[in-house]
């Protein structure tokens, strides 16, 4: 009992090692962070500006899409590119050789992704609030937050599944994760209703957690829907999380074994 | 119990032929390369065991098999009785490795990299900092480099940080893959002396690969020679010399050339 508690504590501390490391990296690559943030702000604003001609409701519709997509793609990217990033730095073998459970590694990477995503999205939110005069009096922001938190799990799960690709193929893997990300963007109704998609594509929409995130968050922000009213989507998102996280973890560990068998982790020396 | 036990380890890789070019409808042709081929040896606790071999003879692959980074196709490897296959976490707690390429976060400082290592291995941060500074000073790397990004350090300086990082965690089995390649003579000496010291004071077991015959002779109790993935000889440096040396005063280098099927006469003839 005590020893398992002690090892849990050790594992938690190890997870924080990855968070600390990543924040140190952010500090050292700060100029790039500023550049990317600038680009993200401009991107969000221009998307909002498209809606100005159509009225304030439309601006909000688009801005919500841009902000949520920003958040979800940070989660997806940070998790799915973690392996390629370390491979590029050359530290992957050192990290994977450490006496740390893979679970702790993935938890740490995911936890950092959430923190980083929250910080980045908050800055974008400030920029948007400053730029557009948005009336949020009718919005249920708490309900939107609940949706965001719950959908984080499923996006992390998707990220874990995608993270296996760079593990298995150093060259093509990272490319494939970008394609997956693009596909999620296309089918999830980020800037439009999924009903405008061709019907064969709409089939895929049903399988993207982001579809439900966007739908529910918009209902909360644009129509002031309560958590209770959103329960249908919330249940679906919880279900996605319950399936995708263990599945992602399992796939990742299988991918690691494959990499260890075929020498794909890294080779030189 | 052996500190390290390797029984019949086999590891092969598949390499695409024709640079991986193949027609759209056919699978690429693959060639099997036996990087490590039926290698067996045992290392005693407290021993320094050297591995010599030409480029591509399988030294790094063998070290990766031991350090749980590669799965062997066949055979069994045990570190202090723990199987590297199914007791990975236990093995990982006991080992650390220095690779030829100093594997660091390039933008992070030496300390930030060492801090990361300290956290991964559950060390006390203050103690780790103290110890890192001591080790680095011992290796002749001044404290002024402690906080500058690693990419600003020379290769040799980075290698010293890598040695410090491995020793920080007090591994009982230390895997050193060409730890002194690329170091100047002075630094080389510093690192070598430190290896001897660590071995003596902490009773660590060391596995060392090198291309420096003198280094291996100086540091290692026993030496194994790998050739194309196979272990072709294993003994103390003295015995190797008397067994395979052609003359009374043959050097380890002579033995190496004899066993790896090349000697200078042939090489020189090839050139001409
Ligand atoms: N991950 C890998 N994928 C494919 N082939 C590999 C991999 N790692 C090693 N090899 C091959 O296995 C053989 C042994 O390589 P290894 O790196 O173990 O040699 P080495 O003895 O360490 O050489 P060096 O002295 O140059 O460091 C080589 O033919 C190499 O091309
Ligand atoms: Mg090597």
Structure description:
The complex is a heterodimer of chains A (about 270) and B (about 270). Chain A has about 270 residues and is mainly α. Chain A has one domain (about 1-260). Chain A is built from eleven helices and no strands. In chain A, helix 3 packs antiparallel against helix 10 (about 210-225) and helix 7 (about 140-170) runs antiparallel to helix 8. The radius of gyration of chain A is 20 Å and the shape is globular. Chain A starts with a helix and ends in a 7-residue tail after the last helix. Helix content of chain B is about 40%, strand content about 25%. In chain B, the strands form two sheets. A six-stranded mixed sheet of chain B has the order 6-7-8-3-9-10, sandwiched between helices. A four-stranded antiparallel sheet of chain B has the order 2-1-4-5. In chain B, strand 4 and strand 5 (about 80-85) form a beta hairpin. The interface of A and B includes residues 29 and 95 of A.
Question: Uncertain regions of chain A: pLDDT < 50 for 5+ in a row?
Answer: none
Order of helices and strands of chain B: EEEHEEHEHHHEHEHEEHHH
Distance from N terminus to C terminus of chain A (CA atoms, Å) equals: 43 Å
Portion of residues in beta strands of chain A equals under 5%
Helix content of chain A: over 70%
**Mean pLDDT over all positions of chain A:** 93
Please list the strands of the largest sheet of chain B in the order they lie side by side: 6-7-8-3-9-10
Please identify the structural class of chain A as seen in this structure: mainly alpha
Bound molecules: adenosine-5'-triphosphate, magnesium ion
Mean pLDDT of chain B: 89
Count the E strands of chain B: 10
Number of helices of chain A: 11
Question: Could you give the topology of this structure?
Answer:
The complex is a heterodimer of chains A (269) and B (272).
Chain A: H1 2-28, H2 30-50, H3 56-80, H4 82-89, H5 92-97, H6 102-131, H7 141-168, H8 172-187, H9 199-205, H10 209-223, H11 231-262
Helix pairs in contact in A: 1-6, 2-3, 2-6, 3-6, 3-7, 3-8, 3-10, 7-8, 7-10, 7-11, 10-11
Chain B: E1 4-16, E2 30-43, E3 48-53, H1 59-66, E4 74-79, E5 82-83, H2 88-94, E6 95-98, H3 110-120, H4 125-138, H5 155-168, E7 173-177, H6 185-202, E8 205-209, H7 213-219, E9 222-227, E10 230-235, H8 237-244, H9 252-259, H10 264-271
Helix pairs in contact in B: 3-4, 3-5, 4-5, 8-9
């Amino acid at each position: 009992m005590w020893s398992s508690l002690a090892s849990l504590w050790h594992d938690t501390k190890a997870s924080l090692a990855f968070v600390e490391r990543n924040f140190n990296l952010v500090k050292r690559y700060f100029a790039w962070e500023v550049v990317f943030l600038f680009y993200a702000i401009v991107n969000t604003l221009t998307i909002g500006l498209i809606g100005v001609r159509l009225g304030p409701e439309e601006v909000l519709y688009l801005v919500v899409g841009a902000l949520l997509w920003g958040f979800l793609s940070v989660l997806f990217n940070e998790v799915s590119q973690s392996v390629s990033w370390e491979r590029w730095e050359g530290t992957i073998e050192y990290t994977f050789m450490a006496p740390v459970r893979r679970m702790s590694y993935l938890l740490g990477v995911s936890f950092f992704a959430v923190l980083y995503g929250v910080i980045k999205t908050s800055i974008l939110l400030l920029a948007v609030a400053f730029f557009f005069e948005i009336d949020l009096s009718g919005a249920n922001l708490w309900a939107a937050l609940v949706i965001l938190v719950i959908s984080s799990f499923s996006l992390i799960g998707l990220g874990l599944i995608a993270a296996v690709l760079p593990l298995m193929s150093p060259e093509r893997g990272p490319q494939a994760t970008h394609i997956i990300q693009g596909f999620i963007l296309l089918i999830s109704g980020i800037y439009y209703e999924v009903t405008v998609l061709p019907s064969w594509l709409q089939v895929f929409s049903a399988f993207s957690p982001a579809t439900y995130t966007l739908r529910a968050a918009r209902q909360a922000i644009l129509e002031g829907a309560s958590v209770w009213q959103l329960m249908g989507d919330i249940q679906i998102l919880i279900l996605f999380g319950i399936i995708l996280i263990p599945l992602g973890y399992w796939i990742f560990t299988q991918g690691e074994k494959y990499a260890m068998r075929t020498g794909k982790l890294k080779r030189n020396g | 119990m052996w500190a390290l036990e390797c029984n019949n380890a086999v590891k092969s890789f598949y390499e695409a032929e024709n640079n991986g070019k193949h027609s759209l409808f056919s699978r690429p042709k693959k060639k099997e390369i036996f990087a490590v081929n039926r290698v067996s040896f045992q290392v005693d606790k407290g021993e320094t065991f050297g591995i010599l071999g030409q480029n591509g003879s399988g030294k790094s692959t063998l070290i990766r098999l031991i350090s749980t980074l590669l799965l062997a196709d066949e055979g069994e490897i045990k570190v202090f009785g723990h199987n590297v296959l199914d007791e990975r976490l236990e093995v990982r707690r006991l080992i650390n490795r220095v690779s030829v390429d100093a594997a660091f976060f390039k933008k992070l400082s030496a300390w930030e990299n060492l801090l990361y290592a300290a956290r991964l291995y559950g060390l006390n941060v203050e103690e780790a900092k103290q110890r890192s500074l001591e080790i680095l000073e011992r290796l002749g790397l001044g404290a002024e480099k402690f906080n500058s990004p690693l990419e600003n350090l020379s290769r040799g300086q980075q290698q010293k940080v890598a040695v410090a990082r491995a020793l920080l965690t007090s591994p009982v089995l230390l895997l050193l893959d060409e730890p002194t390649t690329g170091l100047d003579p002075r630094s080389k000496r510093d690192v070598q002396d430190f290896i001897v010291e660590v071995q003596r004071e902490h009773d660590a077991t060391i596995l060392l690969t090198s291309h420096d015959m003198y280094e291996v002779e100086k540091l290692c109790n026993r030496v194994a020679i790998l050739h194309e993935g196979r272990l072709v000889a294993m003994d103390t440096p003295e015995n190797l010399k008397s067994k395979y040396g052609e003359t009374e005063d043959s050097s380890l280098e002579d033995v190496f050339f004899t066993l790896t099927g090349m000697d200078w006469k042939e090489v020189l003839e090839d050139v001409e």
